[in-house]
Amino acid sequence: MEERTLFDRIHQALDVEPGPGAYEQLRIALAKRPVKPQRWPAFPMRWSKMGLRLAAVATVLVLAIAAGAAYLAAHGVADRATPADSEHAIAAYKLLLYNDYIEIPAAPIEGACFGNQFAACEADVSLRIPVANQIQNDLIRFQPPARFAIAVAQMRRHNALQIARLNAVLVASRALDAAAMSRSVAAVVSGRPWMDAMFNSILSSQQVTVATYIRSVSNEKRNLDQCVQCQDLAGQSRISCTGSQVASCQALLESTAVQILSFQTAVVLIAAPSSLAVQDNWLQLDLAVADTALLTMGEALSTGDQAGFNAGRVSLQQAIAAVNVDVPDILNG
């Protein structure tokens, strides 16, 4: 489809008249501001296949949301007259997140914050913190459509943690503390895949049929059940995370986090039909509890807090047990 045709159709869908010269201004803006490539999680997971599917719609999505900018500039996301869960509102919210997401520096933080590059690291992080703060402000300020409410709540939690980690990098670089800077950078890097994955899932989210949604949930549950590390971490056997056992605990956490993230993003990307909205809400809530438990365990592990790790693990066990109830309700519903 030609860009002009797409531009006209989007304005028809938004029921807004483009201003004089709007199309020409759009083309100039796009030419001046090339779209950044999508950044996918660095750890091994099924997102490699999902990434191909998302990449296929990326070009159309970019043109669509750019063309919709005139509508949002005139009316504002918070002041829409359309219902909060209408297609107009969902498109507007996606645009809001997209505009935040493309402001994240494309270059990895570890490129600037390596070794004793304190000045370069401070300069790099000083660019990242305002972007992360703006994302947090938008996540708090604008009410998301119901489809994204739980995911956005978790985004706020993860992004707040990333902001704290970025500030820790900044403090360490200013103190010329290479060891502390390296630890904080590693923490930032570890948190980046979750945010990338959730951003991309929301931007490409589509409501699907009952059969498609059930198939997606069934696949994710099967993969979670087949994850040996996940079952070990959510099991009842005692796990010690002191001394030489720290590395094995970290491996359990990382493997489980991959599966929970995959499940979380799947139910956002392949959104439930209205007839299963209630069951989907319970599933998303329990997956969010599991995700929060993993964050708690990760922070406890980084400080050698075995009691904190154990407390987070109890929460994870309860969340996984709830997911084991949620999924049959969906499959049988």
Task: Give a description of the structure.
The protein is mostly helical and 333 residues long. It has 2 domains: 1-204, no CATH class; 206-333, Up-down Bundle (de novo design (two linked rop proteins)), CATH 1.20.1440. Helices cover 74% and strands 1% of the residues. The protein has helices at 3-14, 22-32, 47-67, 69-75, 87-101, 109-112, 118-141, 149-174, 178-203, 210-225, 228-233, 246-269, 277-302, 306-332, and strands spanning 206-207, 270-271. It has a two-stranded parallel ribbon. The longest helix is centred in the last third of the chain and has 27 residues, at 306-332. The protein is flat and about 60 Å long.
Which short descriptors sum up this protein?
single chain; de novo design (two linked rop proteins); 14 helices; mainly alpha; 333 residues; 2 domains
Strand order of the largest sheet: 1-2
Averaged pLDDT:
83
Q: Helicity range of the residues?
A: over 70%
Order of helices and strands: HHHHHHHHHEHHHEHH
| Biggest beta-sheet profile | 2 strands, parallel
> What's the helix count?
14
Apparent shape: flat
Detail the poorly predicted runs.
32-57, 66-82
Radius of gyration: 21 Å
**Tally of distinct domains:** 2
What structural class do you assign from the helix and strand content? mainly alpha
State the oligomer. Answer: single chain
Cα distance, first to last residue? 39 Å
By DSSP, the count of extended strands is 2
Strand content: under 5%
